[in-house]
From TrEMBL:
<dbReference type="GO" id="GO:0022857">
    <property type="term" value="F:transmembrane transporter activity"/>
</dbReference>
<feature type="transmembrane region" description="Helical">
    <location>
        <begin position="111"/>
        <end position="133"/>
    </location>
</feature>
<feature type="transmembrane region" description="Helical">
    <location>
        <begin position="531"/>
        <end position="551"/>
    </location>
</feature>
<dbReference type="Pfam" id="PF13520">
    <property type="entry name" value="AA_permease_2"/>
</dbReference>
<feature type="transmembrane region" description="Helical">
    <location>
        <begin position="322"/>
        <end position="347"/>
    </location>
</feature>
<feature type="transmembrane region" description="Helical">
    <location>
        <begin position="563"/>
        <end position="581"/>
    </location>
</feature>
<feature type="transmembrane region" description="Helical">
    <location>
        <begin position="382"/>
        <end position="403"/>
    </location>
</feature>
<feature type="transmembrane region" description="Helical">
    <location>
        <begin position="12"/>
        <end position="36"/>
    </location>
</feature>
<feature type="transmembrane region" description="Helical">
    <location>
        <begin position="281"/>
        <end position="301"/>
    </location>
</feature>
<dbReference type="InterPro" id="IPR050367">
    <property type="entry name" value="APC_superfamily"/>
</dbReference>
<keyword id="KW-1003">Cell membrane</keyword>
<dbReference type="GO" id="GO:0005886">
    <property type="term" value="C:plasma membrane"/>
</dbReference>
<keyword id="KW-0472">Membrane</keyword>
<keyword id="KW-1133">Transmembrane helix</keyword>
<protein>
    <submittedName>
        <fullName>Amino acid permease</fullName>
    </submittedName>
</protein>
<feature type="transmembrane region" description="Helical">
    <location>
        <begin position="145"/>
        <end position="165"/>
    </location>
</feature>
<feature type="transmembrane region" description="Helical">
    <location>
        <begin position="436"/>
        <end position="456"/>
    </location>
</feature>
Amino acid sequence: MATNPTPEMRKSLGVTGLTMNAMALIAPGAFLWLTFYIQATTGSTAPSMWMGIVVALLLCLSTAICYAEMAKIYPGTGSSYYFAEQAFLNHHGAWRYARLSKFIVGWGSHLYYWIYPGVMVATMGILCGYVVGTLRPDLMSASNPGPLFMMLIAVVFSFLIAYIAHRGISGATSVNVVINFVQIAALIIFSVMALGYRLHHPPGSIAYQFDATKGEAYNYEFATTSATVNGATTETVVRDSSGTPQPKVDGAGKIVPYHISYPTTDDKGNFLTHPTPTSVIAVHSVAWAFIQATVAILILVGFESVTAMGGEAKNPKRDVPIAVVTSLLVQGAFCYLIEYFCANYFLNSGYTMQSATSSAAPIGDMMIMVGDALFGQGHGRAFMLIEAFTVFLALIGTTLSCMNTGARVTYAMGKDRELSGHLGALHSKNLTPHRAIWTLATISAIVGCVAVAVVFGDASAPTDATIQALPHGIFSSFGYFSHDRLAALPNTLLMVTLASNFGTFVLYMLSCITCMVAFHRHPKFNPILHLAIPLFGLFANLACMAFYLIGPFMGYGSKREPLYALGIAAVWAIYGGIYFLRSSRKTGRSTLIQERVTSNSSV
């Protein structure tokens, strides 16, 4: 493979290209499809889903301002890793710690940048499994796709995206521009339809209920039979030979229509629906909102990605700060808050939050229902498939952007010999950090396989009856154990997501600290921008990290996933310390810098 360590990156990105790359990484259509399921399964905190996004958004905005301010004085490639080096190196009292600080920031950021693409390729596996199950329910269950099938998709998708990233950033930007427009239009259409469905179906009106077995919506009551086993009576839906639920009939032989309602909880206290629009945006519980924020941060990260592309920006001091804040405001403050409000307000007795916890793609289920309501019975599936295609495009965009960002941070550390030197080389023709890209592709494939291995573990474990009803085959049912065994295992998708999110909180917290160091005694110091806002971001990130420990012991969800995520972070930190010491000894470099190199930004 042609390799030349000397060429420099091509400066080809304007403010639009930078913003589009960051927006693609935030990708609201893709994440709504993914995180709604994860957030629904996060213990009893689901009523605060919308407010959790607001908390995460405030945290991200404060961090985004820190990134934007640092990009104004330190244009370059490497994002927070580069900022940490420059901030300390140019500080009159902290310059000795420049190497140590940049290594801590760079190593900590890899917990996020190396796991996050794996979560995305796992999501692609789940999406493909859901679509195949919808089209061929005899081969795959849409609600519970086969783990091996999802793993195969994750591996293929990892290397396909790596190939696009390897070809060059200009081509990747063009792809992201198209993807952003398509997926934003698609999510607005769904949001309007979901909101319209709720407004046009008052309590008691005839509406649809969703059947997870067939993956279809029906506007009639299901006929059931009662069975008593060991003193417990259960109701079973009557189905024909194709699995279609049969309608209930009244004394006159007429089909009983399904009448919608909006109950808040079931008889066990499980949350079902929001009775009013104010309930969707209400706090409900501060602790619940913070628990939801620890998951919701996944859907907002990415705004900082453009700071890793400073070397490819035409005017980095002007355009990178604009792109950082604009991408977050458009995707987070506009797209996400609208679509999450509409999806939550849509919930009804025909599709409750409990329904969402047992489906691989609850948003896809909702699309089928609103599509049937608007276009007629049976047409909801076609609407869902069209929307799923836009999600497919959005997943390409977000995975491509995060792989580009992660590879460039790895490239910067390799170039500095803080990681293996071969990772700091550019391809002589494409001018991309190709070795970092292919390394990240391999890691993403492995993480993606782990994420989907037990995606229905813990609280989302299907019943034994559901497992028995799965189509039998190595790609459809292999990996599904009994309900009790799955319930005893951690949900690997949630575990990997929380590990990535913990890396995000660490990175954002360190970036807020770096911002305060960068502007300490700097001529451009502003007490609001460079002290108050970074301090808010610092404490907000610390609070979210604290809930990894506090939340489970307060009874807000399973202890397994957050504690395993903390274990992954601890192992990564310990390995980082060992790697730093061994690398320093091998290259003869000291932990603290012995001689200061000043620049124009010195204070």
